[in-house]
User: Fold these one by one.
Assistant:
Number 1:
Amino acid sequence: MGMLLSLLPQEFWILVLVGTAFAVIVGLVPRGAIAGVIGTILILSIAGPFISSLLNFLPWWVSAILMVWFVFAVINWIITLVFGRRTGGHLLALLLHDLILAPFRFVGFLMGRR
C-alpha cells in the first residue's frame, strides 16, 4: 500500500483513506489495514519535504541510480501484486541477470562469435 500511496498525488490520499475505511466497514479488508494507511500517509507527509530536498541536493548520477532502482521496485511490486511474492522475486532475478549479461552478449555479437 505504501508504494501505491507514494505514486498518488497528495490530493488523493484522503480518498484512499475514506475508501479503506469504507472497505473495513463493509468487511472487505481487515481492521489493521486502516492503521497501515494512516501510518503510511503520516510518514509520507512528514518525510516528503526532506526526501525532496535531499534528492535536489544529490548529483545527477546518484539520482539516475535511484530512478533505475525505483523502476525495478515498481516492476517487482506489480509482478508481486499480480502473480505472488515468489514469482515476482524470480522474475526480477531473471531480469537483473539478463541486464548484467547484456553488455557481454553485445560484445560477443560484435566480435562475430556464433
Note: Residues 32-57 form the longest helix (26 residues).
Number 2:
Amino acid sequence: MTQQYNNELQGALFKNDKGGVETRADYTGPATIGGQKYQMKAWINKSRKGETYIGVKFAVNDGVSNAGSDDSESKPVDDSIPF
C-alpha cells in the first residue's frame, strides 16, 4: 500500500546545474502552499554589508514544462534586509 504524505507548507531545494550561466539559480525545487504547487528558485547572495543570505522566488507550477528556460532573470535582492 502506498503511504500518503502531507506536503503542505513544505518544499525542497536541490543544487542547480547552472550550465555555465552564473545568473541562474543556485538551487531549485518544488513547494506546496495552500494546496497549490510552486517551483522555487534560490540564489546565494551578499548584502551591502557583506552578510550572506538566500534570496528565493516562487512561481506557480502549472504543469507546463519549462525545460530549456533560462533562469537568468536578475537575482532577487531585498535591500530592506537590515544587514
Note: The chain is about 0% helix and 35% strand.
Number 3:
Amino acid sequence: MRRLAEQTTANEALKLQIAELQDELNEARATNALRSRDDRKSRHLSGVLLCAGLSLFLLLVIHYLFVIKFDINTVFLRVASVVVPMVVASSISSCWRAPMGLHLVVAPLLGIASVMMMAGVVSVIDHVPWLPTTKRDVFEFAEYILSIALAHIAGILTARAISRLLERRHRNASRFKDTAPKAEQAFRGVLKVHELWEAAAPLLATGGALWAGLRAIVRGD
C-alpha cells in the first residue's frame, strides 16, 4: 500500500509537470505565432513602402525627362504614369501579397505625392503657381492622382490574379484525373467563370487609370 501510495504521488507529480510543460509549450507557440505575424506585417509594410518609393522615384524621373528635358507630348507622360506603377507593384512579391487595405491607403498617397512633386518641379523651373488656381486645374490634378492610384491597384490585382490562376491550375490538375468526364467539364466551366471574374478587376482598374489620366488630354482641356 505504501508503494502504491508513493507511485500514485509520483504519478500526480508527473502529471503536474506535464501540465506545466504543456502550458509552457502553448505559451511558446503563441509567442512564436505573434512574432511570425509581426514579421509578416513588417515584411508587407516594407514591401509596400519600397514599391511606392520606387514608383515615385521613377515617375519623377520620367516627368523630368518627358516634360523638362525633351518636352515630349503629355500623352506619353500620362501613359507612362499608368504603366510604371503597374509594373512596379506587380513585380515586388512582398508588395502585392500585402493586405489590400494597406494598398488602399498607400495608392492615393502615392498619387498625391507624385502629382504634387511634379507640379513643384514645374513651378520652380517655369515660375508658375504650384497649386491649381482654377476649377479645371483642380479637376485635372484630381484625375491625375486618381490615375496613378488606380494604376498601383491594377498592378496589385494583376499580380494576384496571375498567381491565383497558376496556383489553382496546379492544385486542380490532380483532381481531374479521378473525376468523371461530366463533373470535370462542369468544374472546368466554374473555374473559367471564376477566372474571368478575377481577370475583370485588374482590367477595370487599368481602364479606369487610363481614362482618368487621358480624359483631359483627349477632350482638349
Note: Helices lie at 2-69, 74-91, 93-96, 100-126, 135-172, 181-218.
Number 4:
Amino acid sequence: MLSKQVVRILRPMTYLFTGPMEAGKTYHLMRTVQDLLETATPAPFESDFSVDGVPKHVQGGFTAAVFCKPIVDTRTDSSTIASRNGTMFHGVAALPSLDTVVLKENTLVAVDEAQFFDESLLRLFDRVQQTMGCTMVIAGLDRDYEKKPFGHVLELAHKIVMSPGMGQVNLLRAPCHIAECRSPASYTKRLVQGKGQIFIGSTESYVAACAEHH
C-alpha cells in the first residue's frame, strides 16, 4: 500500500472548506494543515512560523509551507490566522493577490478567507496542479449576504470537482442564529447597514442563517 506522502507526490491534492459564517471553515483548514504537517492538534493550538511563512520544522514530506490571507481582512493581525475556538497560526502573509505565492515541489500552501481574492485564487489552483507534490488547503465563504456567489470560491469548487487531480470540496453548515430553529444554516445574514459585497466584520455584523430566517 502506498503511503500518504507517496500518493501526494504522485498527484497534487486540494482541500476546500466552504459554507456560511460560523461553520468552522478556518478551524478545519488549521486541523487539516496540522494533520498534513504531522504536528499535534490540540485546540487551541498555536504554531510558531517564521516571517516568510515557513515553519521552523516542516514535516509530513513537505519542503516548504506557505500561509496566506487577503490583505483586506483586518479583523486580526496581518500576520495571523485565528479560528473562533482560539486556534492560531503566526507568520502568515497578508497578500493583495495570490499570484505572488512562490511554489516549489512539495510545497504546502494554505489560504484563509479565500472569497476576498480575485482570479489569482483560480490561477494558484492551476499552478498547484502543475507542481509535483504540492497540496493546497483553502477556506472561504461560498456566498455573500445576498446569497450571491462570493469571489471565486464556487468556481474553485467546480474546478476541483472537474479536475483530473485529487481534491475534496467540503460544504460546511452552521447552526441557525435563531436559537429555537433546528435547521442547518446555509447562508450568511448581514446585521448592519452597508452597501457593497465587501464589508469587513465578524459576529457583530454577520450571523449564520437558514433559508427561512435569512
Note: The longest strand covers residues 13-19.
